[in-house]
């Protein structure tokens, strides 16, 4: 599933990648250790990480689970946001980051399996093509313009704003503050490249 739409430029791999070891013990099973690499723009996206882990261990589609890592003192540090993930990824060691998956019986934990829970809603976002508010389904955000979003239907029409690259968001953003820093960096890179061709 690509982060960028078909009429976009691929700047998602311009940021350093991070290797992670993911540890999980299924019910009545032996511990499994799998490796993943978090690349580019999505490397600090907690929701993206959860999807990647569900892909590694399909049993998690039907269960609630929590993620954590262990510090030097052996304390379990919970990962439940982009900021929590960023703290782990910014730790000094260049070795693979260890992430532990634990099943939980806590029914109130928010489900990440949005594929079976109806259309995704991006609260506070309006499609600048058809004015759908809130925008539902995939959200396409312009990399060049400071505030321009399209729904999947308007983006696919290729008649609206097709002259600029767009980033696709399959899930709502969990932190506009985190996003704005990364987004501004990508926008600046794109604008610099586009100026070379004009």
From TrEMBL:
KW Zinc-finger (keyword) present: yes
GO CC annotations, alphabetized: aggresome; amphisome
Every ZZ-type domain range: 122-174
GO biological process: aggrephagy; endosome organization; mitophagy
MF term (GO), any: K63-linked polyubiquitin modification-dependent protein binding
InterPro entries membership: Autophagy_Rcpt_SigReg, PB1_dom, Znf_ZZ, Znf_ZZ_sf
Keywords in alphabetical order: Metal-binding, Zinc, Zinc-finger
UniProt cross-references to PROSITE patterns, sorted A to Z: ZF_ZZ_1, ZF_ZZ_2
Pfam families per the UniProt record, alphabetical: PB1, ZZ
Keyword field contains Zinc: yes
Official protein name in the record: ZZ-type domain-containing protein
Taxonomic source organism: Nezara viridula
């Amino acid at each position: 599933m690509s982060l960028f739409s078909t009429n976009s430029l691929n700047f998602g791999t311009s940021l350093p990648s991070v290797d992670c070891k993911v540890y999980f013990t299924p019910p009545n099973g032996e511990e499994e250790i799998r490796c993943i690499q978090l690349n580019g723009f999505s490397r600090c996206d907690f929701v993206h990480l959860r999807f990647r882990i569900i892909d590694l261990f399909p049993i998690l589609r039907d269960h609630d689970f929590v993620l954590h890592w262990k510090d030097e003192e052996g304390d379990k540090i919970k990962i439940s946001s982009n900021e929590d993930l960023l703290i782990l990824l910014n730790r000094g060691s260049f070795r693979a980051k260890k992430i532990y998956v634990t099943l939980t019986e806590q029914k109130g934990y928010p489900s990440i399996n949005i594929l079976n829970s109806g259309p995704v809603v991006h609260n506070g976002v309006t499609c600048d093509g058809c004015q759908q508010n809130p925008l539902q389904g995939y959200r396409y955000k312009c990399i060049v313009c400071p505030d321009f979003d399209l729904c999947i239907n308007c983006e696919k029409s290729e008649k609206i704003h097709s002259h600029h690259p767009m980033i696709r968001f399959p899930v709502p953003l969990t932190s506009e503050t985190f996003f704005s820093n990364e987004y501004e960096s990508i926008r600046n890179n794109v604008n610099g490249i586009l100026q070379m061709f004009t």
